[in-house]
Amino acid sequence: MAVLVDTGILYALADADDAWHERAVEWTDEVAELLIAPVTVLPEVAYLLHSRLGAAAELAFVQSAAAGELEIEPLRQQDLTRCVDVMRRYPAIGFVDATIVAMAERLKIESIATTDRRHFAMVKSRHTKGYQLVP
User: Fold this and answer.
1) What pTM does this model have?
2) Range of 22's domain?
3) How many domains does the chain have?
4) At 42, which CATH number?
5) Which one-letter DSSP state was computed for residue 83?
6) DSSP conformation class of 117
């Protein structure tokens, strides 16, 4: 089974001062599942790394992604259609989180690696009773 990873977890892995850093590192050291990053999280992570930690941190992230350390999932038309539904039903959820929900449904993934418990816990998925939020 695979796990979708969101922006918060990827950022936390890079920032030793982040409140989620230790949990994120321990979890990634132990997880055996394939980690899939929706393409939509990449610009968010890169921006946060560059603005908060500098160009070198952003470059390290891009190099890691280019080296295949994460599986990158493209955004499809059907995902965009589902995003509209999710964003209408849950106004607090923005576009990137809506794409994660859409991809999770399309790929039948039940686990999301996130620091955002509030948003993902409220979503009623089409394929599972509730997401398993890790770490």
Assistant:
1) 0.92
2) 2-134
3) 1
4) 3.40.50.1010
5) H
6) H
